[in-house]
Amino acid sequence: MQEGTTDRRVRSHPPECTTSRDDRNIVRMAVTDRSVTSRTIAQHIKSVTHYPVSARTIGSRLQQSGLSARRALLRLSLTQNHRRPRRQWCDERRMRTTEWNEIVFTDESRFCLQHHNGRIRVWRHRGERMLNSCVMHRHTDLAPGIMVWGGIGYHSRNPLVRISGTLNSQRYICEVLEPVFLPYLQGLPTVIFQQDNARPHVARIVQGFFVNLQIELLPWPARSPDLSPIEDMWSMVAERLTQITSQAATPDQLWKDYLIFK
């Protein structure tokens, strides 16, 4: 370099801490177990090569191969006996328009004190969201929290009902349908009532309640919460509650926050 001139200094890049063989093993581990963490892969590579590898390096290698960490899709396990009625139900109502304005979608939902924050990630390529290995099955075990009943229509919504303990058919009528839904029904010209196939909903006494009042029920396929728009509302409420409710909150505090939010 001559005096009075400038030139770009050639910078040396750090040596690659993984070989091409290591990179293939990294990708293979992520594809074999989609929910494996970068830290776990790094520990495995270190145990094999005896060289330290950071979780950040693992993430970089996976991204270079087209794999990205994304939230796992949650879904219920379905058999062919579930899929056929669901498909038939959708085909029968695919071209209907006016009926949806008359439907009141109802459901119970449990909001837990310990929120699922969506931190379960899976490694996947673009377009692999519905791949079975990238899907986490939903669990239905009870957790500490509160259960509420609610309903939404095209232009309105039901008042919320907090349900303590186990909901049976008699309580469903006495605590939900008679004091809450029937007054709400008075302000609507026509109503088609939607509920899922939970035992309190399909009990003979409950079915007789709707028949006596001449309330039309919407047939509902089994294990199909994803077909109801109220599930989207519950998801938005749960996400909002995680922002305003502490992890140490009691069920009563959670219900108080719920009332404030709504």
From TrEMBL:
<protein>
    <submittedName>
        <fullName>Transposable element Tcb2 transposase</fullName>
    </submittedName>
</protein>
<feature type="region of interest" description="Disordered">
    <location>
        <begin position="1"/>
        <end position="20"/>
    </location>
</feature>
<feature type="domain" description="Transposase Tc1-like">
    <location>
        <begin position="23"/>
        <end position="93"/>
    </location>
</feature>
<feature type="domain" description="Tc1-like transposase DDE">
    <location>
        <begin position="103"/>
        <end position="243"/>
    </location>
</feature>
<dbReference type="InterPro" id="IPR002492">
    <property type="entry name" value="Transposase_Tc1-like"/>
</dbReference>
<dbReference type="GO" id="GO:0015074">
    <property type="term" value="P:DNA integration"/>
</dbReference>
<dbReference type="InterPro" id="IPR036397">
    <property type="entry name" value="RNaseH_sf"/>
</dbReference>
<dbReference type="InterPro" id="IPR052338">
    <property type="entry name" value="Transposase_5"/>
</dbReference>
<dbReference type="InterPro" id="IPR038717">
    <property type="entry name" value="Tc1-like_DDE_dom"/>
</dbReference>
<dbReference type="GO" id="GO:0003677">
    <property type="term" value="F:DNA binding"/>
</dbReference>
<dbReference type="Pfam" id="PF01498">
    <property type="entry name" value="HTH_Tnp_Tc3_2"/>
</dbReference>
<dbReference type="GO" id="GO:0006313">
    <property type="term" value="P:DNA transposition"/>
</dbReference>
<dbReference type="Pfam" id="PF13358">
    <property type="entry name" value="DDE_3"/>
</dbReference>
